[in-house]
């Protein structure tokens, strides 16, 4: 997908708080998750179908669901050979989820699992349980956010890498003092 000059794009919101039933439903399908990942940069329906190995009709349907939920928008329209070509992009750079929504978490992890399955490189997947004070957890959260947000983007010809970061207070599972260790896939 060729990049669009920043000056041509409507400004994306920095953050979208996902809090409505329509938005959570939109996130419930793995292809819609993959579309959201792909739409970090603008793309047409045909470009998305090719990049994701999906049929145009399926992509069109799922884009409509995401658009109705306010998660993607048309950023450019062009007349091409008697038809109209639309370029889509996410409405926000980042999304957060209101409250604890297990459906959203399951949808996100399902989409990440699909991406890991399709990865051409060796993915890194770590799970570690660490005992932290509230202050330590806040510092770690701030540092993780800083690392992800300040990661320098390479040129448009370079491969895209997915980054998923989660920091959460574990429930009673780790209360026995057992470190469940790390996993590398």
Automatic annotation (TrEMBL):
Keyword terms: Coiled coil, DNA-binding, Transcription, Transcription regulation
Domain of life of the organism encoding this protein:
Bacteria
CDD domains on file: HTH_ARSR
What Pfam families does this protein's entry cite? Answer: HTH_20
Q: Which residues form a coiled coil?
A: 130-157
Residue ranges annotated for the HTH arsR-type domain, each copy included: 22-100
Q: What is this protein called?
A: Winged helix-turn-helix domain-containing protein
Taxonomic lineage of this organism?
Bacteria, Bacillati, Actinomycetota, Actinomycetes, Kitasatosporales
